[in-house]
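Notes from the pairing session

We agreed to fold both candidates in a single pass and log them together. This is the raw record for the first candidate, unedited. Please don't reformat it; downstream parsing expects exactly this layout.

Candidate A
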Amino acid sequence: MRIAIVEDEKHNRDLLIKYIDDFGKSNGVNFVVDTFSDGLEFLASYKPVYALVFMDIKMPNIDGMETAKRLREIDNEVVLIFITNLLNYAIRGYEVGAFDFVLKPVGYADFSSRMKKFLKRFATADRQELVLLSNNTRVRVAVEDILWLEVDGHNIIYHLADSEYTVRGSLVKAERELPECFEKCNSGILINLNYVQCIEKDSVCVFGNWLPISRPKKKSFSAAAVKYIKKK
């Protein structure tokens, strides 16, 4: 599960990273954390890969409230928790669909309480997950976090933004477990159309990675990508 921290003060970022790590270990959840020192940096590189965003209110350039308003213009689904020492701003957070807020100075008990509340909501959301056996370890992966699948001999590699998992199996079998947003660009690669950035000649850019499109699949893949984008 991927989390973003938008906080200009390093010691507060480091504290949240530690809390997230401690909470993950205590609750058996694997978190990947990205940090941003201000709202403009966060918005400039934003991609809809986060389950949760921790947002400081008082920041240079643009404050957390304005950052949240701009975030909602491009992603209305991501869960947002404000970090602030200003209670009135925390209350205003509900104007931008904030899930919750944590008051500074942040204590672990308060943080843990908010995270448990978030995980409860997360567990009841309509999210499809797969349990993969990779390197003799079972890992739980949200389908929406998968960028693409790739054949490697008798194995399938599941590519995510910050990790990959190699699983024994076939692409045909893996495709049966996935929703319609996954489409083959060739006989050995199955792509999540949510992450397609552009298509040029015989290749497709998926989350910054260029993958080959085979000649037999070019027409059907391009049509599927256009059709899916229009539906969103």
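Candidate B (folded immediately after A)
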Amino acid sequence: MSTFLAFLYAAVLSGVPLLYGTLGEIITEKAGHLNLGVEGMMYMGAAFAFMGGYISGSPVVALLFAIGAGVLGALIYAFLTITLKANQNVSGLALTTFGTGVANFLGTSLQKSSVSVVVVPASVVNVFKPLDMGFLSDLPVVGQLIFSHSLFTYLAVALAIGMHLYLNKTHCGLNLRAIGENPGAADAAGVNVTLYKYVHLLVGGAICGLGGAYISLVTCAGNWQQDCVSGQGWIAVALVIFVSWKPAKALWGAFFFGALRILKLYVPASVISLPSAFYLMLPFAVTCVVLVLSSIRMRRENQAPAACGVNYFREER
């Protein structure tokens, strides 16, 4: 039982960056843009959070650097696809390549700039360690699973719930959904389509940047590791389809894929003897299955926003 609880707890920890990436892409696609640059924005968030935390020794600065990096990546993508009407798929792939290169360059350069190993100070890393909530953390089962997580985890859950309420219960959220379905009709109704797109794409980038910060400050414990994101941005893009563009469903979807990523650590070799490569490819294999199954689900509420991936030309409405 203790091993199973440890597995569930580790699945939550592993699923947090996926949740950030998924939420960032959901808000982006609701605005009618398919951004395949989630991986790049998460890499930039990881590198800038590492750099900001190391230079300043402040957790607030580290988070601001991560958010700024994600916003910068999203701004590049938004300018290309909203203002210049560039192809969204190509722009997103270019952002992934750019973000990965910039992040690895910054991280490696910072490591080589000092004789000693460069590590984010404990004053930063300790802020994002699991919280001790007193007797709540000591409760059996739920204490470990619910009341023993870091600020990053609780912020991700709050973002998922808040985004659900925003998209379904607010006037601005309904306007955003209208833009994702039919930007011409939303424009005719007086909605500033360009402003909505820019704002929500930048918000999506900021959320992805926070996912990268989690990886460098929590998963890597303040150490820079080359290729630390390791495909999690791509899994997040597929997760958006898996959860049918619904932020509330992203909670369990992210933790399910998080469980797949750490499964190899909890399956005894004496029970099931499989090569480690099988477990490494498992999340990506399930991602492929998800994409196939989602393509045959014909219910309209489970489909992507109708205008997602299509640039809006105002003169053609």
